[in-house]
Amino acid sequence: MTAVREAKASPPDPTPRQGPGGGTVPDLPRVITGRVVRTRSGNVSLRVQGRTVAATAALLVALLLVAGITLTTGDFDLSAGEVVQALTGNGSGIADFVVNTLRMPRLVTALCVGAALAVSGAILQSITGNPLGSPDIIGFTNGSAVGALVVIVLLHGSMTEIALGALVGGLATALAVHLLMIGRGIQGFRLVVVGIGVSALLLAVNSYLITRATFQEALEAQSWLIGSLGNRLWIHAQAIGIAVAVLLPLAFLLSRRLSMVEMGDTTAMALGVDVSRTRTVLLVISVALAAFATAVTGPIWFVALAAPQVARKITGSSGPALLPSALMGAVMLALSDLAVQRLFAPALLPVGTATGCVGGFYLIWLLVTESRKSRA
Predict the structure, then answer these.
(1) What is the chain's Cα-based Rg?
(2) Closest CA to 124 of 327, 352, 363, 307
(3) Distance from first CA to last CA of the chain, Å, rounded?
(4) N or C: which end of the chain has fewer CB within 10 A?
């Protein structure tokens, strides 16, 4: 492969787009930096940005550090060598139990759920052109919660049935939002507003279901609604791992089209992108990622909202930056879970308390920042 040329700026789109406050703003030329590398035949090309590569590498290092600390520390400390031996099947009985039964499934679940939520949020924020576009805000997470509560309160189902109920609830919510927008297009500010309305309605349904539950059912439901990685086994890790292994590559393959859609409908169509179909397919992928993640752990707030924005800032990317977003989400959730395990021991706090606290401050900062931009 040979570096051919520096990437140039894309042309502006004369079609006005809707901004975060609901007004229309014209698209401006997007400056695309980096070096294009392609094969000699020209059939395959890749744009490489130094800052993005460095940020991705740093996130991978951070991921390894968090994973190493998670596996070696706790009530029963282990050395790195003992962890490696346990992972390869050569460890002692106690080390094997601590690593492979207690810590590793929880860590794998955290990494996969964090990556799934972050990519789900990155896709929605890109489609809507709004930093508030995430499954938390638009209502897909609350839809999954409704499905799970129906199974807990009305059907008295098992953990597997609760997970299936959450998955069905999230997909049904996406279908409801889509039906409400038929004929008006899946785009921008309208999707966020419709999603917020649906989310408020679903939150009321959640409250009603809890009031109809017995005391024990209410405790179980409330515990699930906070979002937790406690008592997660390999069956949970495998479920979300399979979902991530299938859905993330599809999202990455469509990331180039997603970047073109961000330029505006006219520009994207001129470049040969079926805008409506691309938005619909990416929306389905986003909803499925959020639904599978919520089905495994319960609603974990603000990872999908914050991780994509932080990833964009550290990479300096003008596009959706799906891979850095996935790594950022994995690091954020694994680090949050590590914090609640180590800083608050012996109390067993759910990870949702940590992400909710940090995410609340982030949301306040984001709203203040967007408000200042609107006034400017």
Answers:
(1) 22
(2) 307
(3) 45
(4) C
Assessment of whether the complete model's pTM goes beyond 0.85: no
Both structure tokens of 66: 């968090």
C-alpha distances (whole Å) from 205 to each of 53, 74, 120, 172, 211 are 45, 39, 24, 14, 10
> Do the Cβ atoms of 112 and 175 come closer than 8 Å?
no
Tokens 């030329």, located at residue: 29
Check: CB of residue 337 under 8 Å from CB of residue 351.
yes
Q: What is the pLDDT of residue 39?
A: 61
pLDDT (0 to 100) of residue 332: 93
Q: Would you state the structure tokens that stand for residue 364, as one six-digit string?
A: 């306040």
Strand partners, 40: none
Looking at residue 24, its pLDDT comes to: 46
pLDDT beneath 70, residues of the chain: 1-48, 183-188, 370, 374-376
> Residue 289 in contact with residue 243, Cβ under 8 Å?
yes
Looking at residue 103, its pLDDT comes to 93
- Residue 376: the pLDDT is 60
How many whole angstroms separate alpha carbon 135 and alpha carbon 174?
10
80: part of which helix (H) or strand (E)?
helix 80-87
The helix or strand, by DSSP H or E, that contains position 48, with its residue range, turns out to be strand 45-48
Length of the chain: 376
86 contacts: CB under 8 Å, gap ≥ 6: 78, 92, 95, 96, 98, 99, 100
CA distance 203 to 193: 15
CA 325 to chain centre: 8
Pairing verdict, β 35-38 and 45-48: antiparallel
Using a 10 angstrom Cβ sphere, with 0-12 exposed, 13-18 middle and 19 or more buried, the burial of residue 204 is exposed
Secondary structure class of 25 (helix, strand, coil): strand
**What is the C-alpha separation between 157 and 166, in angstroms, rounded?**
12
Coil, helix or strand for 186?
coil
Q: How far apart are CA 160 and CA 183, in angstroms?
A: 37
Apex CA 235: angle with CA 110 and CA 250, to 5°? 60
pLDDT in tens, 111-122: 999 999 999 999
